[in-house]
Amino acid sequence: MEHTGTATVEFNTQALCDFYRTLIPEDKTTFLKTLAQDYSIDHRIASHLAHNLYLSQGKTEAVILKTEERLKAALTPVYQQLFGQIAHLGDGVKFLVDMRADILNILSSNGTDQDSPHLKSLNTNLRDLISLWFSVGFLQLERVTWGSSCDMLQKISEYEAVHPIRNWTDLKRRVGPYRRCFVFTHSAMPREPVVVLHTALTDEISDSIQSIVHHPTLSPEADQNTGMMERQEKPESINTAIFYSITSTQKGLQGIELGNYLIKKVVKELQVEFPQIQQFASLSPIPGFKDWLMGEINRAVHAESIGERSTQILFTKQELRELSTNFGHQGQPILVTLKQFLHTNSWVQTEFLPEILQVALMRLCVRYLYVEKRRGFALNPVANFHLRNGAVMWRLNWMADLTPRGLGASCGMMVNYRYFLGLTEQNSKQYLENQQIEASSQILELVKLLPNKETESKSHL
Fold it and tell me: d(Cα 132, Cα 77) in Å, to the nearest integer?
């Protein structure tokens, strides 16, 4: 290929990309497996050069450096050259991002290829290459308004993964007064938002998504004479910025840190526009809590069915007595009945369960957020993201998201992570180096309600 004309190489590379796009998922898997296995590293040559490097010790520095260069070249997969050629195409970077998404889909499937070492190596090499192209210095910050291009607004609506946008009126509100929508774009993927951050400008730290999406606490006011909505914000009424939705739009960028940089950039933008803003915080979902809770209840029910005592205490004796009294005679263990109510979300409509379960579910949710760990870090991915950024786990909010999605993910709870700008670097360092979570008094008081053995970190591999 080195001796082939540039135009021919570009033509053949484009033809390869066009061919790949026509493949069905099964054929893409075959293509990627072949690429990963047959165009990887020649282990025989790499081993030979590694031995030469060992033998070169004691020789001149020039000889050692030359041997190292040869070994480095041998350790670079052949397909790396192909990736470089694809990247030179007009839509080449986007193609490679989408190709990595295909690789991730294969690795996350339950098929025989999910443990393929060659595919894992291909994914790692492609991720490292893409992460260089998507360094923060190559990204452009752009504010999206109702005056932005139609295709950008359409993509903002389609990509919103946290709180789905219902219609154009909803979209107009989310990019209108007292709202800021910022995106990162990349020159190699024009008019394509890479990461999207929705921010609400308020006069307090919001405790429910309803107060932001459905019934804003600050919103344009109606003119008394015309009845029309004023489009001007009143800066003096704003003292808080709430990050209520952040979405990475490209699966192929998974594992490449971009959201953290977007939040930092937006904070600086808002500080220039509204110097009086004193509070920066998120209003975050808690994905995975309900699934985790149902798993814990299932384990407790199983332990009870075989006459064993559960190793984890989920509900106090007083809570179980109250539940038993209000459920009446169901002919089955109380936890089984409760599990059914939680599964169908019908507990929210009952007269007594929300009040009875509030303390218990908030206590268990704090255990999930603060105590449960994976490799020393927070098990919940959203918590891990904000804690890595240096935020404080600040407030757990009851009945904060009563949509089917919110009830299904976290029994309707949401959490604020607060960014104290002067402490974020210190908090991030403590978390990354010592796995120490900075939390408010409300969170720590809920932790105190846990049995002592549950306050110790629970590790998940």
Answer: 17
